[in-house]
């Protein structure tokens, strides 16, 4: 039975997936033929290749024809030995061990914070440059936290061939999507305060959460009680506060990631940020409402022109037909979409703007950003 709603079907799901258990990746064969392996290119390892982001790593590497000379697929012992075809070559998944990084130039990690904390430093010791998608090292003052369109200079000191390993952190997905849009405006008028409300898709909680949303939708439409294994409440036809742990200050961890990461990426400890993060029953791609208060005036027409020329941004802002960004439109897309660009009437003059932003959490919010970082190492 196919999905009862028009969400793009995640490419890593089989049509025969058992919806009552976490999905098993099918690793669909890539139809793209790589022109040739690049003898002078880096050796690459994908850590957590069986996960949703791990599979997206492969998709982006192929789409962008990343010039690797070899690629190693790493996962847990449970997945070791499985075979699949990628770019018309058969690969065998290997168990992640310290020796996995011998001879590896770049390792793309998306296997969770505990795995990153254990194996990231090991890889670095063996001379590998690690691009980590977890939160393990983001706030380490010695680890660059990078969005290539925003702060590429943070990793200027790290290049292949420098004779040693290094760690580079991928920011949280909601931070990436927000700052790709907000930073071009920040550069022009300096943001003093930012208020963000996020509407975050199931993809942010992994492939199993996406499957549970699909399952629950079917169950509710058929009048049955929804299966709640990933979240402790109904997700289909509902929304609720982000499932991250709530801290003593009343904010949850997801909200505080946006506060802390933005300050680090913008290198501005004084910028005021507050966030409210919500899970919504969308399969893939996050949406965010962003209110900006500026130090200098910035009118909406100028802001729209800035965003139209910003890297990684597409403007969808058609007031006449009430057409603005939606998660569905940006699913499986590289660019972050921005619309609802308007002056904040609660602030005097042109010192405030509201924008609405949508971006694919799995792609730009995770895998694509990491691959762009890897490209900057070349």
Task: Kindly describe this structure.
InterPro entries: Asp_semialdehyde_DH, Asp_semialdehyde_DH_beta, NAD(P)-bd_dom_sf, Semialdehyde_DH_NAD-bd, Semialdhyde_DH_dimer_dom. Residues 43-158 form the Semialdehyde dehydrogenase NAD-binding domain. This is aspartate-semialdehyde dehydrogenase. It comes from Acacia crassicarpa (northern wattle). Pathway: Amino-acid biosynthesis; L-threonine biosynthesis; L-threonine from L-aspartate: step 2/5; Amino-acid biosynthesis; L-methionine biosynthesis via de novo pathway; L-homoserine from L-aspartate: step 2/3. It is a single chain. The protein is an alpha/beta fold. The protein has two domains: 43-171 and 366-377, NAD(P)-binding Rossmann-like Domain (Rossmann fold, 3-Layer(aba) Sandwich); 175-361, Dihydrodipicolinate Reductase, domain 2. It has eight helices and 15 strands. It has helices at residues 52-63, 113-125, 173-189, 207-221, 253-266, 300-308, 327-330, 363-377; strands at residues 43-47, 70-75, 83-86, 89-92, 94-95, 106-109, 129-132, 166-169, 191-200, 240-241, 272-279, 286-294, 313-315, 336-343, 352-359. The strands form three sheets. Strands 10-11-9-12-15-14-13 form a seven-stranded mixed sheet. It is globular and about 60 Å long. It starts with 42 loop residues before the first strand and ends with a helix. The relative contact order is 0.15. Residues 1-26 have low confidence and may be disordered.
């Amino acid at each position: 039975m196919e999905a009862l709603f028009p969400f793009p079907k995640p490419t890593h799901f089989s049509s025969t997936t058992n919806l009552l258990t976490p999905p098993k990746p099918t690793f669909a064969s890539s139809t793209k033929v790589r022109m040739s392996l690049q003898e002078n290119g880096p050796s690459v390892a994908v850590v957590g290749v069986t996960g949703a982001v791990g599979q997206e790593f492969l998709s982006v590497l192929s789409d962008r024809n990343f010039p690797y000379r070899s690629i190693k697929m790493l996962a847990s012992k449970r997945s070791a030995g499985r075979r699949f075809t990628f770019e018309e070559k058969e690969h065998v998944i290997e168990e992640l061990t310290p020796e996995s990084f011998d001879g590896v130039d770049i390792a793309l990690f998306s296997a969770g914070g505990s795995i990153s904390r254990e194996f990231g430093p090991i890889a670095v010791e063996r001379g590998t440059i690690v691009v980590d998608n977890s939160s393990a090292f983001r706030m380490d003052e010695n680890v660059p936290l990078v969005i290539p369109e925003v702060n590429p200079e943070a990793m200027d000191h790290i290049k292949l061939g420098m004779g040693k390993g290094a760690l580079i952190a991928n920011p949280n997905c909601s931070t990436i999507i927000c700052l790709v849009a907000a930073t071009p405006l920040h550069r022009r008028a300096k943001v003093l305060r930012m208020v963000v409300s996020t509407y975050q898709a199931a993809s942010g909680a992994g492939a199993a959460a996406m499957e549970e949303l699909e399952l629950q939708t079917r169950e509710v439409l058929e009048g049955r009680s929804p299966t709640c294994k990933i979240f402790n409440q109904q997700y289909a036809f509902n929304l609720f506060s982000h499932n991250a742990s709530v801290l003593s200050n009343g904010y949850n961890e997801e909200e505080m990631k946006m506060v802390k990461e933005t300050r680090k990426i913008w290198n501005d400890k004084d910028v005021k940020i507050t966030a409210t993060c919500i899970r919504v029953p969308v399969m893939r791609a996050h949406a965010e409402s962003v209110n900006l208060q500026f130090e200098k005036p910035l009118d909406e027409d100028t802001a729209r022109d800035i965003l139209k020329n910003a890297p990684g941004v597409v403007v969808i802002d058609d007031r006449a037909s009430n057409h603005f960004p939606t998660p569905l439109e940006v699913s499986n897309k590289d660019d972050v979409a921005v619309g609802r660009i308007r002056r904040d009437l609660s602030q005097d003059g042109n010192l405030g703007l509201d924008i609405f932003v949508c971006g694919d959490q799995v792609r730009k919010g995770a895998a694509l950003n990491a691959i762009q970082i890897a490209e900057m190492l070349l």
